[in-house]
Amino acid sequence: xxxxxxxxxxxxxxxxxxxxxxxxxxxxxxxxxxxxxxxxxxxxxxxxxxxxxxxxxxxxxxxxxxxxx
Length: 69
Fold this sequence. Notes:
The chain is α+β, with helices and mostly antiparallel strands and 69 residues long. The chain has one helix at 34-54; strands spanning 7-11, 16-20, 28-31. It has a domain at 7-54: Double Stranded RNA Binding Domain, CATH 3.30.160. The chain is built from one helix and three strands.
């Protein structure tokens, strides 16, 4: 499991759960269930990181959980 923030929400338009990774531009996946979207985005995250590394592009460090005062 990656340490990047994942936002999962239901899309009426797509009739699917959408999982987005804000720290990795363009990194997103979908699924028929919340769990499926999460599993799919984990695969996409790994592909995103591998591709960025192969292309010599910078890979953002996971920001971790934001703490609010």
